[in-house]
Each structure stands twice: as structure tokens, then as C-alpha cells.
Amino acid sequence: MRETLALAGPLITLLGVFAGAWGTLLMCRPYHPFGTWRVLLHLASVAGMVLRGRFAEASQSIRNASDFSAINPENRFRTLEGVYVLVFSFLLQTLGATLIFADSYLSRRH
Questions:
Q1: Rg of the chain's alpha carbons, rounded to an integer?
Q2: Given 5, 9, 95, 110, which is the most exposed site by the fewest CB atoms within 10 A?
């Protein structure tokens, strides 16, 4: 039983984190002009600029993406779908954390 808890808790929590990231991406789709993979590349690019201290360039890159986002009108179905996926991700993370807590509690009793 404990072996199942020890494995299931972190895996379910991680699945919840990925679902949360996906839901957030769906919700924010109207605010960027890119497809899914391009958004991730742009995010990495901006993060790289910030890590190198190039804050003004990072801000300008975000501003440029914002200006171009007008070409991508909001798909309210996709935005609401993102909200649902995000809420589901919180449930998964809560379940995972509960299993991790149960595993921790059971391991202290033995």
C-alpha cells in the first residue's frame, strides 16, 4: 500500500502541474500571437533575456507580442476550456498532495 502511495502521490501531483500549465496556456491564448510551441519558445527567449539582465529588451519583446496579439481574437470556448482544465489541475494537485501526506504519515507510524 505504501509503495503505491509513494509513487502515485508525486505522479498525480506532477500531472496536475502539467494540466495547470496547459489550462493557463489555453486561457491566455488571446494574449499572444503564437501557436503553442512558439509561445514556449518566446517564453524561453524572454526568460533568457531576464536572466542575462536585459530587462528592457525582454519588456520590448513582450510588448511586441502584445501588439501582434490583435490578430488572434479570443475563442471564448478555448478560454473557458482552459479555466476548466486549470480547476481540474488543482484537484489533481490536491489529490497528489493528500496521497503524499498519507504516505508520510504511514511511514512515521512504522
A1: 19
A2: 110
Both 38 and 21 in one domain: the answer is no
Q: What is the DSSP string of 57-72?
A: HHHHHHHHHHHHGGGS
Average pLDDT by consecutive 10-residue portion of the chain (110 residues)?
82 95 87 80 95 97 85 81 95 95 84
For residue 28, how many other CB atoms are within 10 A of its CB? 13
Angle at 78 between CA 76 and CA 25, to 5 degrees: 120
Q: Do 3 and 23 have their domain in common?
A: yes
pLDDT for residue 87: 96
Q: What CA dihedral angle connects 46, 83, 86 and 72, to 10 degrees?
A: -30
Residue 95: HSE in the Cβ half-sphere, 13 Å Cα cutoff:
14
